[in-house]
Amino acid sequence: MTHSLRALAALFLAGSAALSPALAATGTAPAGMAGAPTATAILARIQLAQATGQPTAPPADPQGAAARSDAVRRASPTPVASRQPTGAFPTNEISRQPSIDLGAGEDALRKDIGALQQTLTELQQLQLQTKQAHWNVSGTLYYPLHLLLQEHYEGLSKYADTIAERLLAVGASADGRANTIVRTSGVPEIPGGFLDDAQILAWFTQAYKRVGEEVNRGIKVTEDIDPTTSNLLQEVEHGIAKYQWQMRAHLQRTGTDPNAGRDLNDGKPVELPGTEPGQAAPDRGTPGQAAPKP
Ligand SMILES: [Fe+2]
After folding, report:
1. Domains of the chain
2. Any idea of the CA torsion for 125, 130, 131, 133, to the nearest 10 degrees?
């Protein structure tokens, strides 16, 4: 065995030993493993985020991630290195070259950049999650949801690019790094494994609602200091609200059909507010969830 093969073997053994406790600690264990989060528990984190307005992403595991990353760099025949420090998450560096002055001062520019950056992060999170769901959707609605989620993914990608390039246009760098998404998105991690169609409808009904409300706050923050950014955010909100409706409509009650989602969920209703006959009008602040299967 060559020196480099021995190093790789040692790296694999060390990584295997470190990986299982790290996964359990961050709540990202694959379905079927002890300690894996239920859809109910994860959807409850959206409820918490809506109630507090705070991001609910779990804290990263910087020590474990850094150790694995360092080990990979040491074992690599072509080490990945940069002369620049990693910086904070997010990092929005402001250009010193001439750019159009918004005329509202530095604090206003910071607010403008903050609204754009948070929108970019949420759009990237939704890009990842719609693609994950596009691949893993299972059940009666597999095919229409497979197609719809791809359409949403492509729309979200265009919006993310527009918002990132607006950051550059106002003189700031855009931060689309994986760690920035994990550490600052207000949308929790989507469950791993196969995804039930009813669970997907409940998940994206709530995730789009949360992001749409966040973008709406950005529209209001920027409407006086940077109307162009505010208008772009309105376009994004327009798209997100459409996507939210396209998920919610699958479970829309009508006068002739309660549309409770029982046909998608092993005979149990999908617990979105207002889906049960005789139930009170939806509380727009309460997230729903798919009823867990026994
Ligand atoms: Fe595909």
Report:
1. 88-290 (1.20.1260.10)
2. 120
